[in-house]
Amino acid sequence: MADTTKAQANIGVVGLAVMGSNLARNLASREGNTVAVYNRSWEKTNTLITEHPEAGFIASEKIEDFVASLQKPRTAIIMVQAGKGTDAVIDQLTELFEPGDIIVDGGNALFTDTIRREKAVRETGINFVGAGISGGEEGALKGPSIMPGGSAEAYQTLGPILSSIAAVAEGEPCVTHIGTDGAGHFVKMIHNGIEYADMQLIAEAYDLIRRGTGKSPAEIAEVFAEWNRGELESYLIEITAEVLRQVDAKTGKPLVDVIVDQAGSKGTGVWTVQTALNLGTPVSGIAEAVFARGLSSHPEQRAAAIGLPGPSDEWTVDDKDAFIEDVRLALYASKIVAYSQGFDAIAAGADEHGWNIDLGAVSKIWRGGCIIRAQFLNRIADSYAEVPDLKLLLSAPYFADAMSKAQDAWRRVVVASAQSGIPAPAFSSSLSYYDGLRAERLPAALVQGQRDFFGAHTYKRVDAEGTFHTLWSGDRSEVQAVDSH
């Protein structure tokens, strides 16, 4: 039991499943931290303190004792399942904490829930921080990328603690104050959306190489390992090589051939797409990745589609090495689009909710500890450092040059996927997005004409200011100026 007569811990963790336990161990391993721990079930708490006596945890069976064991201003990180469980713990702590204390939600909460919670808790004088924590179980233990929101006041206390446990990239801790209320969880949500796109693009690259060249998973693993030594260097490319090398102990087959081809989802990718739609910001690469998982998870429809016609000619690759290089370039270009769309969504969210988010700082804290850490995040940081109000990441010189070098190969790969009947939705949609940006004029003009025809939705003209409506009656219809005030 905790000694309730004297506060001893500078930080506490509530919720001791794997992520919470690992985060508590990480905190305890850093100089200057003493960690209080509490779980609704004493069994998990007891297991943690028994297995890791070196951590010096201050453990409590009752939440009242947990609160009493914290130094003021009290700071507690909640690591419980998002939803009602989080709300229940927040309510408990709010009743026991005092003004100036800090409650941190370190789970994968929907950012609108965080906005609601922060507003409610703020009325009590207590600080509420929604903090995105990326890196999975290993990151929580060894150093995650951390994206805290909340007030500047709260970050004064919380910042040094989070900096002590965050991953370090090029000498800098992978944590920064993202912005007020739900900004931290918003950025973490977009991070996860980019992660969806990145994973789908890698999967499409693997599928094209395997079906186009006939290489085995183990041989393709070596391709990815080679890619990881160049501009595609990233955590996801690295682990892809490891996954493809694995042999199933039971069957002796490549493990990837034994795993059922139905991809799961925990919802953050869906949230990203829904939010982007509400913001009017295209994230087509992320959306296609979400849809691809959805398609994979409908075996009954896929079974019903067996026998539907496909390409009449068998597809073959004449120069396998050249094709693999084309896929590498297409992957790099599509990956850049995914990140560009993600940063567009962050900027749009910041405008909508009044957050002052430093996009360059976000790219820097993603360089270590998180799932989408990649070499070229430094290039993103450089781009925003050179032009802080950069409107389109793709237009930055480094990325424009990368697109110039990759686009011919990218187009060949998309053509090959279509001609061969191999689905590559993320590659294809990313290229279409890129070409949509480049287009001097889009067919949206026709869409506006259609909308005005059937719904009098009006339109604007290229040769005059104002808003207009056409009285449609043949090819010489009457145009009316519409008073927009």
UniProtKB/TrEMBL annotation:
Keywords: Gluconate utilization, NADP, Oxidoreductase, Pentose shunt. The active site is at residues 188, 195. Its EC number is 1.1.1.44. Pfam families: 6PGD, NAD_binding_2. GO terms for molecular function: NADP binding; phosphogluconate dehydrogenase (decarboxylating) activity. NADP(+) binds at residues 15-20, 39-41, 80-82, 108. One of its GO terms (biological process) is pentose-phosphate shunt. It catalyses: 6-phospho-D-gluconate + NADP(+) = D-ribulose 5-phosphate + CO2 + NADPH. Residues 184-473 form the 6-phosphogluconate dehydrogenase C-terminal domain. Pathway: Carbohydrate degradation; pentose phosphate pathway; D-ribulose 5-phosphate from D-glucose 6-phosphate (oxidative stage): step 3/3. Substrate binds at residues 108, 134-136, 191-192, 196, 266, 293, 451, 457. Catalyzes the oxidative decarboxylation of 6-phosphogluconate to ribulose 5-phosphate and CO(2), with concomitant reduction of NADP to NADPH. Homodimer. Belongs to the 6-phosphogluconate dehydrogenase family. This is 6-phosphogluconate dehydrogenase, decarboxylating.
